[in-house]
Amino acid sequence: MFRPITRRGFVAGTVTAGAAATLAEFAFLQSLPRVDAKDAKAQLVPLEADIEPLVRLIEDTDRSKLLESIADRIHAGTSYQQLLGALFLAGVRGIQPRPVGFKFHAVLVVNSAYLASLAATDNDRWLPLFWALDNFKGSQAANEQQGDWHMAPVNEAKVPRAHQARQRFVEAMDDWNEEAADVAVASLVRSAGAAEVIELFWRYGARDFRSIGHKAIYVANAWRALQAIGWRHAEPIMRSLAYALLAHEGDNPAKRDAEPDVPFRDNRKRARRIRGDWQRGTINSDATTDILSNQRKASPSEACDQLVDILNKKVDPASVWDAMFLTAGELLMRQPGIVGLHCVTTVNALHYAYQATGNDETRRLMLLQAAAFLPMFRKAMEGRGTLSDLRVDRLEKGEVAKDGTKEDAIKDLFREVSRERLSAAKKTLAALTVPGLTADVLMKEARRLVFAKGNDAHDYKFSSAALEDYYHVTPGWRERFLATSMFNLRGSGGRDTGLLERTRAALSKS
Fold it and tell me: Are 277 and 244 in the same domain?
């Protein structure tokens, strides 16, 4: 179903498999009508008729001309919602979701760009989306070089009946059966309600640690994007999502006990040991500190057992989530980079699922999986090099520009981000004590710098996750969590991308 059929692949395969063939053997092709690139796209999965032309424009326009072409459409009446939907669907249809990362960040970043837009000023609201449009063209080029994958239409002959869809989908996902899952999810989306469909995906997104959290991230981002663009676009998105979640190495994971799968299987049993009224308890900072300390050395199993014990002592889940957020931020402090930042974005996705699900067992599993994934992240980071001994709960307050305004303090802080991130983290704790310098003011500047200087999907993914989660951490801890974000936010000393001015120039044309 998802196998690419491309001119490049056809030519390469012909040369390899039929080196002895002569041109005469292909003479019959001369009598057939010519099929150009536009006609060949008839084999792509069809989209809703009203959005297909805009998706085609994004797909077919050269990168050097896309922003200006889109600006013309906006001036002609294209809405933000329409453009957001078209961009997401272009990525889903034209970028292979395996591995779940790398070039596929063109899709993963769309919701993050949308969140950044929501938090931006009116004048800057289009900027993140235009950055994501340009980023899509880079991923599209990479996808072409790596086989030119495209999503094909559903095999309608194998689509199960509506009353069978849910069972068939669960069976296929449990058995890691790609073909069966594809037709089952198509039937499920057509026949079930959105809430029923996503309830299944929360679990499958969190069931294994492959792709360092990107599976859970994709589930959360796909669902959130669908809230903005409309469930009527869900079928190709959920097909892409199911295909991504079934990515694995080696033999069928259902028939072996691979390390990425063990925590979920164990946590389904642990979840039953948590007290019935576990969602109500006492906020306990000491419990947060205990979990944070244990996370620095515990195995996934040990970390999850501790959570069960603490929840059964009537500690509020908010204090447990505090420890998850702080551990993620601390790991980023201890080894800034690609794995560390995904500690933060993955916990963000799991927490979002925890908030969104209507199933009590799923909520327990999201919290337990967060506790299991963080030691697995730590192990992955140890394999890449030494982790520093920085501790988020011991981070000392620094100094900001003395006798200055809040504007001076902000400038001082983000200059320091570009020079020395640990110092910037300490300055963050101090800046939040400056009269009038609230976290909202600080985060507004952080987003502005991402718009001006961000040149990677992770700039948007990370900043949207970290700045959102500031409000998910309880007061007293949230300032320290925000301080850890300075280890991956953009500072004022970096070079502007140039895309910001190009976007503004395109949009300013009448």
Answer: no
Same domain, 370 and 418: no
∠495-83-148 over CA atoms, to 5°? 80
Could you tell me the residue range of the domain that residue 291 belongs to? Answer: 267-382
Neighbours of 440 (CB within 10 A): 10
In the predicted structure, residue 25 carries a pLDDT above the cut 80: no
Proportion of the chain in helix, strand, coil states, percent, rounded to 5: 70, 0, 30
Tell me, yes or no, whether 2 lies in a domain: no
What is the identity of the amino acid at 330? E
pLDDT digits (tens, 9 = 90+) for 359-386: 999 999 999 999 999 999 999 999 999 9
Using alpha carbons only, give the angle 217, 219, 224 rounded to the nearest 5 degrees.
95
Q: What is the pLDDT of residues 242-278, one digit of tens each?
A: 999 999 999 999 999 999 999 999 999 999 999 999 9
**Judgement on whether residues 339 and 480 belong to the same structural domain of the protein:** no
Q: Report the distance separating Cα 190 and Cα 224, nearest Å.
A: 19
List residues bridging with 282 in a β-sheet: 315
Bridge partner list, 315 = 282
- The SS3 of residue 432 is coil
Total count of domains within the chain: 3
User: Do both 283 and 239 map to the same domain?
Assistant: no
Residues 231 and 288 in one domain: no
Listed residues 222, 251, 280: the one ending a domain: 251
Answering whether pTM is above 0.70, one says yes
Site of tokens 């059964």: 312
pLDDT tens-digit series, residues 294-305: 999 999 999 999
Alpha carbon distance 344, 326 (integer Å): 9
Residue 356 token pair: 């969104």
Cβ contacts of 223 within 8 Å, gap of 6 or more: 198, 201, 356
Here the contacts of 97-100 (C-beta below 8 Å, separation 24 or greater) are: 97/218, 97/240, 97/241, 97/243, 97/244, 97/247, 98/243, 98/244, 98/247, 99/211, 99/214, 99/247, 100/210, 100/211, 100/214, 100/215, 100/218, 100/244, 100/247
Same domain for 71 and 200, yes or no, is yes
Amino acid at residue number 229 = I
CB proximity list for 149: less than 8 A, separation 6 or greater: 2, 4, 94, 95, 96, 143
Q: Which of 382, 412, 432 is the last residue of a domain?
A: 382
